[in-house]
């Protein structure tokens, strides 16, 4: 039995398969940051830190002896709990194709949003995100969609000046992504196609993000190192409901802070 304690839940094997399939379906499009940075793992629940290859000097423990402490990046954990009706799960076991898994869908959205924010914005002292690390000034997108290509081209130029090659990926928040998908420029040319020609990489819907982030896709600039990848676990149950959770652990390392530019609406 592992730490997820799934064997203790009043859920059949078929029920777990249904829940795992639903979680994967909801998480895959929402985990936007993973499409823009390097991904390594999963390394397992016992993975606790990433070696940074650096040290910090310590006071000497004895005369004539030097001491140093190795520096590591500790893993962080995210967990999103939710409750499901046991009656609904039993209906699924009987073959119902309309099982109410809304709470699972909501939890998947919440934890995907949290991961996106941690990687692209940052998470206090726990995670230094792409946007928090970049030394570049924020580039305003402009007041109208027609101004966005020039803003994105400006961001690309900032990266090129620092020797950061493309292609580039463009992460956009909910509102910004909707604008790009719905807008056309003069002459009827789709805005999304113009932006794709500029960045030469993906334009990614990113739940939780405010504005946008342009990130180089050349590799080796940002690393998301996952211990426990997102998985469903069991917490408790009573006669009517079962409490489950989605959980993951990871470190995020910024190797090249200048490889991204933030964009504001």
Automatic annotation (TrEMBL):
Where does the record say this protein resides?
Encapsulin nanocompartment
Q: Which Gene3D superfamilies match?
A: 3.30.2400.30, hypothetical protein PF0899 domain
- Matches recorded under InterPro entries: ENCAP, Encapsulin_nc
* Annotated keywords: Encapsulin nanocompartment
Give the source's domain of life in one word.
Bacteria
A Pfam family cross-referenced in the UniProt record is Linocin_M18
Membership in a protein family = Belongs to the encapsulin family. Family 1 subfamily.
* NCBIfam families for this protein: encap_f1
Q: Which PANTHER family match?
A: PEPTIDASE U56 FAMILY, TYPE 1 ENCAPSULIN SHELL PROTEIN
**Name of this chain's protein:** Type 1 encapsulin shell protein
Q: Which organism is it from?
A: Nocardioides humi
């Amino acid at each position: 039995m592992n730490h997820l304690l799934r064997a203790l839940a009043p859920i059949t094997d078929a029920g777990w398969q249904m829940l795992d399939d639903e979680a994967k379906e909801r998480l895959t499009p929402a985990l936007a940051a993973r499409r823009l940075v390097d991904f390594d793992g999963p390394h397992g629940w016992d993975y606790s830190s990433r070696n940074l290859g650096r040290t910090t000097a310590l006071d000497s423990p004895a005369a004539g002896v030097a001491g140093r402490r190795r520096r590591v990046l500790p893993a962080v954990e995210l967990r999103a709990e939710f409750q499901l009706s046991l009656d609904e799960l039993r209906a699924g076991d009987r073959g119902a194709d309309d099982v109410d898994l809304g709470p699972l869908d909501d939890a998947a959205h919440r934890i995907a949003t949290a991961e996106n924010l941690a990687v692209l914005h940052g998470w206090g002292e726990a995670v230094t995100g792409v946007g928090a690390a970049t030394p570049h000034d924020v580039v305003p997108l402009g007041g109208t969609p027609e101004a966005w290509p020039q803003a994105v081209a400006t961001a690309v130029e900032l990266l090129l000046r620092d020797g950061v090659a493309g292609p580039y990926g463009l992460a956009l928040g909910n509102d910004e992504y909707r604008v790009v998908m719905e807008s056309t420029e003069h002459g009827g040319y789709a805005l999304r196609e113009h932006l794709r020609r500029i960045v030469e990489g993906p334009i990614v819907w990113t739940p939780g993000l405010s504005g946008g982030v342009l990130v180089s896709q050349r590799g080796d600039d940002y690393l998301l190192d996952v211990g426990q990848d997102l998985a469903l676990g069991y917490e408790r149950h009573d006669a009517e409901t079962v409490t489950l959770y989605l959980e993951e652990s990871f470190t995020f390392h910024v190797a090249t802070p200048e490889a991204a530019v933030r964009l504001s609406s």
